[in-house]
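During the second year of the project, the team shifted from modelling isolated chains to modelling whole assemblies. The rationale, set out in the original proposal, was that interfaces cannot be judged from single-chain predictions alone. As a representative example for this report, we include one of the complexes processed in the last quarter. Its constituent sequences, exactly as entered into the pipeline, are reproduced here:
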Amino acid sequence: MIRERIVGAMRPHHTLHAHCDVPCGIYDPHAAELGARTVARMVELINENLGGDETQRNKFVRCVSVKEQHAELVKREVQVIWSDYFKPEHLETYPQLHDLTWRILKQAGKCKQSVDAQAAADLQALVKQFADIFWETKGGRPQA
Amino acid sequence: MPERIEEREGRHARFRSGTRFGIGLAAVGLALAPPLSRVLRSWPLRSAVAGTSMRPGLEPGDWLLVDPRGFAGRAPRPSELVAVPDPREPSRWLVKRVAGVAPDGRLELAGDDRGSSTDSREFGPVDPASVIGRPWARYWPPTRIGPVR
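Output from the structure prediction step:
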């Protein structure tokens, strides 16, 4: 109680932005989509790769490690776009944005914890929804 | 006679230790006074860092003291931290490092983590008169209290 009071009184009055918020063209959900695809592919490889020799074991560990890193990458990329790119007016048009972001972050965690093709597919689908919203706010996905 | 001398010396010693204590107290006071006044004038500008462009020196969520007179009488110099309004949106404040000073005296600003920072390459050099203050200390989280530079 006293601690909360003290911390409350110490709370900052201002925000100093140290953001990565280049006005246009730099934000891109592609990295998140690629990350989600990588996670799904790693799940496939891990499931195939149950052999016991050292090379196989090495490959297995590498796949798990890459899955972990890319799930983290998805979280990071989605978080940045969510916090730095999307603005309140976007939220009015896409009220599901906060919930979707939250579900992606949760789902990425689930993909780290498991070797579950369905979880990875769900992550990909959620990230695609997120990317679709992003590109709608940009007036359409660029043609590759 | 000898007793009185001893007594006098005793008093003298007490007097000396009292003086020393007083001088010590004054010294500590003098040493603390400028930082204390600095804390007091920085307190209304206490600010939270948002974003990662100043990593690893400043982390998002760090609470900083910003001294409004941190550059009193001079312009910020290269490598110093500054708090400035975003030239594109002045109600929004930025924390940046002075990367260089243009010939006209304006400041080139940059984030520390160049990969994830909006900086002068995006919005051009800023007027030193627009600088809000100098972030000089972190007061939260408790584990990382101390000066920032």
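Chain B touches chain A through 33 residues (CB under 8 Å). The first helix of chain B runs from residue 2 to 42.
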